[in-house]
Amino acid sequence: MNENILGIVAGILTSVSMIPQLVKVIKEKNVKDLSWIMILILISGLSLWVWYGILKNELPIILSNAFAVLVNLSLLICYIAFRKKS
Amino acid sequence: MNENILGIVAGILTSVSMIPQLVKVIKEKNVKDLSWIMILILISGLSLWVWYGILKNELPIILSNAFAVLVNLSLLICYIAFRKKS
Predict the structure, then answer these.
(1) CB of B7 closer than 8 Å to CB of B52
(2) Which of A35, A75, B69, B83 is the most exposed place for a label (fewest CB within 10 A)?
């Protein structure tokens, strides 16, 4: 299989798997089971992957990790917004 | 920064961020909030990333995604083991 197609399919699958968590948090407005330290570590790691993809000039890595950064930034914003309720 | 060091740091951060979920499930033996479809999609995507890393001969991608596959396979096993209790 072409490497780029493989990377894009892999990126779509790992990105899609993060959506249910975000949808759940937005619906239930409940973040007591989430760890903000974990979200921060994840955002740092994903951002480094974007940087790695830029250095290596690999579009599948840049796109899938940039998308994952956006999803997890949204999670972090939800965490800050809903934290008092929990 | 050297690309490989960058990739290894990125891989360690994104891998470490998955541990709290596994620890939580093993401690609480409760999986009712987990989606097995999400875990299966994630394992498929991560396995494709390992394959991508092998094709591109990039060790940071192979190692971090192989580790993530192991963590999520453990989650899936916990899911199957604790599912009846939930």
Answers:
(1) no
(2) B83
- At A13-71, the pLDDT tens digits run 998 888 888 888 899 888 877 788 889 999 999 999 999 999 999 999 999 999 999 99
The ipTM, to two decimals, is 0.83
CATH number 1.20.1280.290 given to B3-82: yes
Q: Where are the domains of chain B?
A: 3-82
For chain B, the residues whose C-beta falls within 8 A of a C-beta of chain A are 3, 6-7, 9-17, 20-21, 24, 33, 35, 38-39, 41-42, 44-46, 48-49, 51-52, 55-56, 58, 60-61
> What is the amino acid identity at position A58?
E
Contact A42 B3 (CB under 8 A): no
